[in-house]
């Protein structure tokens, strides 16, 4: 429950989503990711992240110090956003962490979300090193 509680706190801190909109027992743990990304040559990120998923309508109030933009989009819109980021179009930038999740997990999870079979792809034994 600790990871789910932490996710609930971070979603409030970054997106302003209240705990009432994010019941702890609705988080679906899907996997773990050892994430490493350089920043300015002196600092960077190196962390073990848990990939949790939840499908729910929520109210958001994003923290502008943490989040540049929030959008709801379908799969094709996400693919177009990734294409624009790759091409450097329209100033689109994606965080390295989000990009790793999109490229390695999200697109394959999408069908399972639509079919209601997301639990089938859960793998909490493997630590994916990306």
From TrEMBL:
Gene Ontology CC entries for this record: cytoplasm
Pfam families membership: NUDIX (PF00293)
Look up the domain of life of the source. Eukaryota
Sorted alphabetically, which PROSITE patterns does this protein's record hold? NUDIX
Q: Where is the Nudix hydrolase domain?
A: 1-100
From its record, what is one biological process in GO terms?
Answer: isopentenyl diphosphate biosynthetic process
GO molecular function: any one?
A: isopentenyl-diphosphate delta-isomerase activity
The record describes the protein's role as: Catalyzes the 1,3-allylic rearrangement of the homoallylic substrate isopentenyl (IPP) to its highly electrophilic allylic isomer, dimethylallyl diphosphate (DMAPP).
Please state what the protein is called: Nudix hydrolase domain-containing protein
Say which species the protein is native to: Eleusine coracana subsp. coracana
Q: Which gene encodes it?
A: ga04673
């Amino acid at each position: 429950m600790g990871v789910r509680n932490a996710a609930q706190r971070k979603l409030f801190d970054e997106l302003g989503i209240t705990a009432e909109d994010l019941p702890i027992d609705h988080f679906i743990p899907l996997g773990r990711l050892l994430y490493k990304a350089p920043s300015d040559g002196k600092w960077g990120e190196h962390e073990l992240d848990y990939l949790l998923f939840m499908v729910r309508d929520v109210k958001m109030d994003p923290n502008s110090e943490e989040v540049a933009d929030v959008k709801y989009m379908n799969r094709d819109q996400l693919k177009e956003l990734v294409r624009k980021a790759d091409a450097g179009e329209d100033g689109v930038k994606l965080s390295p962490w989000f990009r790793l999740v999109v490229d390695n997990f999200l697109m394959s999870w999408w069908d399972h979300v639509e079919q209601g079979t997301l639990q089938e792809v859960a793998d909490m034994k493997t630590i994916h090193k990306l």
